[in-house]
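Summary for the steering committee. The consortium agreed at its last meeting that each partner would contribute one worked example illustrating the joint modelling workflow. Our contribution is presented below. We chose a case with several input lines so that the handling of multiple components could be demonstrated. No manual editing was applied between input and output; the record is shown as generated.
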Amino acid sequence: MSKNTQILLVERPTGMLQASHFQLREGEIPAPAEGQLLLRSVLLSLDAANRAWMQGATYRDAVNAGDVMAGGGIAQVVESRADGFAEGDLVFGEVGWQEYVAVDARHVARCSDHRPLTQQLSVLGIAGKTAYHGLVHLSGIEAGETLLVSAAAGSVGTIVGQIGKIRGAKVVGVAGGPEKCAWVVDELGFDACIDYKNDDVPAGLAKHCDGGIDVYFDNTGGACCGAVSMYDGGPITGPVGIPGLLVVKRIRMEGFIVMDFADRDDVAERDLAAWTASGELKVIEDVIDGLENAPEGLIGLLAGANRGKRMIRVSAEPS
Ligand SMILES: NC(=O)c1ccc[n+]([C@@H]2O[C@H](COP(=O)([O-])OP(=O)(O)OC[C@H]3O[C@@H](n4cnc5c(N)ncnc54)[C@H](OP(=O)(O)O)[C@@H]3O)[C@@H](O)[C@H]2O)c1
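What follows is the complete predicted structure of the assembly.
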């Protein structure tokens, strides 16, 4: 009987995440109980939020020392003890950083027929829906407005900026490093991108957003979508000048979780799939082979090594 390769979080990091916080072990393949499915992982999503879960409870429970590292992904049913599922079905759910997992069938969602399968984790997954709901449903950006987006080369940011262009906005990104910034403009069609590691950011904003900023889709500072700059040992800070600037500039600041808009997921999926098919939206994916590479993959993501949606291919994609 083959073993179940698993990656545990053995210590909750207080500073920056390191490979030593994880440990690989060969566990047993679980037996599914009544109502459960035994799944074999195919694609594991790596997300900035994985690091936030180690800090404490968020929209889900914290990941504690000794736990198999948590993570969502796409998996294939190996054995079904639940009505409505059969061996070979593909589902999305909480698979964790392991090859095999037994889960309650009511906690998984069936994958669609859309291919490539990777796009069900990227543009049609949490990243695409977060970008779509945040920009279209929450901000309501309109043609002619100016959109600023941080972590512009990341999985959410690449899609936010491109949707902004599709909606007729002027789009300015913020990203780390000159090559990334040039790529965001040349490859993704943003109007400009400010390199927060090397440029004078206020001067860049004054230059590229000279008419003001109508929507700031913030992935890094904690003002709207996420706070990746503070997940990995960075100082807990926030936007400065609050509440004075909110009053004077009539700013509305609102956080959201992608699930808040689940009732409109079908609209998001329809538009995202159509823009992808027409070529208006470029899907940027960063697929790493091998579960054992998940720790370095997440550490790298937090350090900006990724472009677009990073994921781990745990096993071969079923035909
Ligand atoms: N609200 C929701 O429902 C929801 C859902 C999904 C994701 N999110 C949030 O969306 C954000 C992006 O997540 P993701 O999974 O798509 O990751 P991602 O953007 O693909 O990767 C994270 C990026 O953040 C940038 N970064 C890292 N440390 C930074 C720092 N100190 N300052 C500025 N930028 C930094 C890096 O790019 P650079 O090279 O440019 O630094 C890195 O590539 C996260 O804040 C996440 O929590 C929210």
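The pocket of NAP is lined by residues 47-49, 126-127, 130, 151, 153-157, 175-176, 180, 219-220, 225-229, 234, 256-258, 301-302, 304, 306 (CB under 6 Å). The chain has two domains: 4-122+284-313, 128-278.
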